[in-house]
Write a structure and sequence with these properties.
Layout: H1 2-12, H2 19-34, E1 40-49, E2 54-66, E3 70-72, H3 74-84, H4 87-105, E4 110-114, H5 117-121, H6 125-136, E5 143-147, H7 149-154, H8 156-168, E6 172-178, H9 185-190, E7 195-198, H10 200-205, H11 210-225, E8 229-232, H12 238-247, E9 251-253, E10 261-262, H13 272-278
Parallel strand pairs: 2-4, 4-5, 5-6, 6-7, 7-8, 8-9
Antiparallel strand pairs: 1-2, 1-9, 1-10, 2-3
Helix pairs in contact: 2-3, 4-6
The structure holds ligand C2E and magnesium ion (3 copies).
The site of one magnesium ion has 4 residues, from β6.
Length: 288
């Protein structure tokens, strides 16, 4: 096929380039057609609300079904799309698709969408979000935008004004991956977050590092004092779940609750063992 020939030729003449650079170029080229060829898909991962014991929201996570390479993780292609600017149309597609899926397939649930700092830097971003919401007919309060600390560092005043104006339309704002960036506690009081998502590295470490217990407790208390919802990411087993519930987290997300899946197969109800644990039955104590 002409396109792959072109690519091979292109590579031959770029011998000086490192492998990593070459890989990026190839991905960047392939990204050009990915939207029009419908190679992107959104997966949805459930979030368990501990107070009600039910799944009340989903995080939309993009997947790229590459025609030759199969599924490529966002961790690999999002950085490429960010540096090439392709994240702008991709981000629009994500927002549009997530809102339509929310309307068609996830009634009553909230939908969380990840936003790259590059999208946020685009002057049209807030209007684009408002337009997508209007087009979808989904109430703004059902949409949550997940942002990371990097975005706040770049242009503090601008970030604050955009987030404030989005919040006025009813959109919720979550601080994603809390604790791993250049975290500053000042951000928590200065920015109008509705939700803090504790990064999964803290949950993973829990068994091996008692300091992380203290950190989780502190974040939970701080978040409560600031009226924010605390979500723990990366909940992988019953021990994680019981610990985080006892710590006072509001919501849990992780493979143990449900892996990210296409809309048709994403988990809608909590598994029976989880429901039992939430009702106060600890595993193995059911008297059998
Ligand atoms: P994130 O927003 O922090 O999303 C959570 C990541 O953790 C997801 O990886 C999810 O699959 C993974 N995860 C969830 N539960 C568990 C668990 O129990 N154990 C482990 N080991 N991992 C778990 P994924 O889907 O590969 O996405 C990686 C990152 O790519 C996301 O991190 C987000 O920063 C970015 N991303 C994903 N979709 C989008 C998108 O539509 N737009 C933008 N801008 N970024 C996206
Ligand atoms: Mg996220
Ligand atoms: Mg995260
Ligand atoms: Mg992340």
């Amino acid at each position: 096929e002409a396109k792959s020939n072109g690519r091979a030729t292109y590579c031959m003449f770029q011998e000086g380039m490192g492998d990593a650079v070459r890989q990026r170029r190839l991905l960047e080229e392939d990204l050009h057609d990915a939207i029009s060829e419908q190679q992107f898909e959104l997966y949805y991962q459930p979030r368990l609300d501990l107070a009600s014991g039910s799944i009340t929201s989903y995080e939309a996570l993009i997947r790229w079904n590459h025609p030759e390479r199969g599924i490529i993780s966002p961790a690999e292609f999002i950085p490429v799309a960010e540096s090439s600017g392709q994240i702008i149309p991709i981000g629009k597609w994500v927002l549009h698709t997530a809102l339509n899926d929310a309307r068609e397939h996830l009634p009553d649930a909230r939908i969380s969408v990840n936003v790259s700092p590059v999208q946020f830097r685009d002057n049209d971003f807030a209007d684009e979000v408002r337009r997508s919401i209007e087009d979808s007919g989904v109430p703004a309060k059902r949409l949550e935008l997940e942002i990371t600390e990097n975005l706040l560092i770049e242009d503090d005043a601008r970030a604050l004004s955009i987030l404030t104006s989005l919040k006025q339309t009813g959109v919720k704002i979550a601080l994603d991956d809390f604790g791993v960036g250049y975290s500053s506690l000042g951000y928590l009081s200065r920015f109008p977050f509705d939700t803090i998502k504790i990064d999964r590295s803290f949950i993973k470490d829990r068994g091996y590092n008692t300091n992380t217990h203290a950190i989780i407790d502190t974040v939970v208390r701080l978040g409560k004092a600031l009226n924010m919802t605390i979500v723990a990411e990366g909940v992988e087993d019953m021990a994680n779940l019981l610990f985080l519930k006892a710590s006072g987290c509001d919501e849990l997300q992780g493979y143990f609750i449900g892996k990210p899946k296409p809309i048709a197969t994403t988990v809608r109800r909590v598994a029976p063992d989880i429901a039992l644990a939430l009702a106060g039955h600890t595993p193995g104590s059911d008297g059998n």
